[in-house]
Amino acid sequence: MSEAGGCRGCGSPVPQRAPWSLVATTAALCLVTATSVWTAGAAPMSREEKQKLGNQVLEMFDHAYGNYMEHAYPADELMPLTCRGRVRGQEPSRGDVDDALGKFSLTLIDSLDTLVVLNKTKEFEDAVRKVLRDVNLDNDVVVSVFETNIRVLGGLLGGHSLAIMLKEKGEHMQWYNDELLQMAKQLGYKLLPAFNTTSGLPYPRINLKFGIRKPEARTGTETDTCTACAGTLILEFAALSRFTGATIFEEYARKALDFLWEKRQRSSNLVGVTINIHTGDWVRKDSGVGAGIDSYYEYLLKAYVLLGDDSFLERFNTHYDAIMRYISQPPLLLDVHIHKPMLNARTWMDALLAFFPGLQVLKGDIRPAIETHEMLYQVIKKHNFLPEAFTTDFRVHWAQHPLRPEFAESTYFLYKATGDPYYLEVGKTLIENLNKYARVPCGFAAMKDVRTGSHEDRMDSFFLAEMFKYLYLLYADKEDIIFDIEDYIFTTEAHLLPLWLSTTNQSASKKNTTSEYIELDDSNFDWTCPNTQILFPNDPLYAQSIREPLKNVVDKSCPRGIIRVEESFRSGAKPPLRARDFMATNPEHLEILKKMGAASSIDAEDGLRFMQEMIELSSQQQKEQQLPPRAVQIVSHPFFGRVVLTAGPAQFGLDLSKHKETRGFVASSKPYNGCSELTNPEAVMGKIALIQRGQCMFAEKARNIQNAGAIGGIVIDDNEGSSSDTAPLFQMAGDGKDTDDIKIPMLFLFSKEGSIILDAIREYEEVEVLLSDKAKDRAAILKDPEMESEEQPFSENDSQNQSTDQLTSGSQEVDLGDQESPEESSLNSHPESLSAAAADDAASVSPSEQNSNPPENHEPASLDGECTDLDNQLQEQSETEEDSNPNVSWGKKDQPIDSILADWNEDIEAFEMMEKDEL
Ligand code: DMJ
Questions:
Q1: pLDDT value at position 304?
Q2: Which of 412, 577, 743, 905 could form a disulfide with 470 if both were Cys (CB 3.0 to 4.6 A apart)?
Q3: Which of 388, 403, 493, 919 to mutate to test the pocket of ligand 1 (most atoms within 8 A of CB)?
């Protein structure tokens, strides 16, 4: 333990506290001192404006939480489009994402401490009573150890921390007797069997009732886990130990961290994304600060802050140096290989890394934090949200956005560190975008595709645990919060743990076996907390000056590969062969290829990059043959454009990406399958016809409804329960003949999305929709005078009044004549048509393999002049120049070609896995 804690160079010490507590408190204090420093740059925000935004956040939270409690509780999560609870086993499986759901009212537990931060003490008291009364932790469900720890154990501990704080204040929670803590302890014991491995790294999943490896547990055969999964336990487990005196939890979490530290790649000091829990071998050797690793780093630094143990700081600093040396390429953060850290492992970044600027603030390294945050903000300004993954030239790589809070988190910490009102404006944009694009009558819906604005029937619990907390705190003054937030540390799920735990029940840290007592040298404590007096010496425009050069980084992107070529060009070396230029018929290219990997490390690097580019190029080409998803936006009362359904495109008919959207009321065709001349042309004329999938080709359906006068068509899948949440994007192909005669737009909806429209018809009769390539701005939709008079967007009582609960209750039958109406039958499958569909239109449908990762529907962002010219010069040069030294001595000449090729293969497999992996 260093004397006087780690915050050298920071403000005044807090003498009543022990040194390790002082570290945490001072770090927190350092964060807040900055608020008064800022005097210039973005215009200051008035107190009234801040209060207005704070109130808006409160109203939004009420909308999300209220709808969860009313329509979903006690289920784990709210499904905001269908306005009901998500119960595991009752919905189609979404794979790993569902491992967060343990039938333990996840959203309620994850929301507990948010209620107190938002000053909703009465609701908190009610919520705690509900948790104690209703929540069962003994369900026969296999859950993720990581998610259960950060969301449920963290949620219970955060709730307990604030319950005892309130009780001590003497007004609320007077009845509380550590019941949440007892539940947390029960849950802690349920998670412990996961650690029964030789390495001490936990299994990734556990059965809440049966534990692990018993036949009835249905888990325990996994061999790998992610680094973050094994390395994000110490805060919750140590808090549990220190609150209860049961040291075993902290011991187990420490042991897992010790093991990861031992396994770091010793020359680069980086860790991989996944590790074998039995052998400790790295399974995925790529390394970044986002998905799979993120909170491992976060917990090393925060464990130091909370527990005051210098060994955690030393580890964090060692990793941080490596990150800044290899991964940080400001403003980008790019994954590299742990063994070849100069080699990028990807050309894209994931959204989870958006937490990193916030962590850099805690570390005190503000400059790169400002840079990366600004880059991310530019991406958000372009796409309204941060897509799950985006390329180094800022194109969408994976278009989903599940309302992740990481960017809001970093915005909050940067505001605390700089006091720059710019970050208040950033928060305002986040609030506006959430209301404009994600808010639906029954909560907030995740974005299925940020480019089309379509929704997913999903509102993750972290949205309530984190997003509203950080946004509210961004605008709150000290007096707006009923306790001192600086006395707590945020876990990765933004749960609050009190800093006084550092001095309580420390025996587990004493039992720590592998980390030795070390006296750290002073350099470890440089910038362990941001001291704004030093960071912004007499220069309040400092942050702005860092941001300014990045203002156009997204619009005028210059892909990184080009930059490296530029470097090599300037140094006089021959430019490497790029995958996009490769021609199998060019002997020079073949010669270069042969040599790659067998000579100098630079050429080997070029070889690896070439292979990587080839893989990406071919997957890009595959993607380009697929059409992007489209959107069906319900614009009539009470939706007013808020519900946007993901629709599959058609390879025929009006191309919605080139034409204005089609708007119209919907009408079911008769016959519903649309396979013969319609018997109800008067009902369909001038409308958008609904047709059921099956029994004939899609083009035939399109022609029949077009002949009846329809202005568009929506084909609804007849496979009951199919949904864009779980099925790949669906394209309707033509019939192999000329389809130029089809002039109307045709879109495809899976059964779940289709039934939202059919239910709406039952309830409201008149349902108007927009068919487009991208959801339209609601303001533009509401320009329609008819609508303007009907709705005031986001009025005070907007949230509850217009909930889609009406959709699911009290159905009014619509008379559709004598034929079977879709509204009557929407919940029944059509067994006869299933086989027919398989025989006909199923054959003409091309499911995309890139459902959740649809390609960007445009050319790569154009390069600015400099890049393009340089690129051309280089291309010309590579075509004319002879290889200057064919006998060049390659650095790896003693490495046999087979082993290099094996290395390549390994890398290629890793790239392919990355492509497939969920973040
Ligand atoms: C949260 O559950 C946690 O922040 C976790 O560490 C990773 N990210 C999700 C939300 O995006």
A1: 96
A2: 412
A3: 493
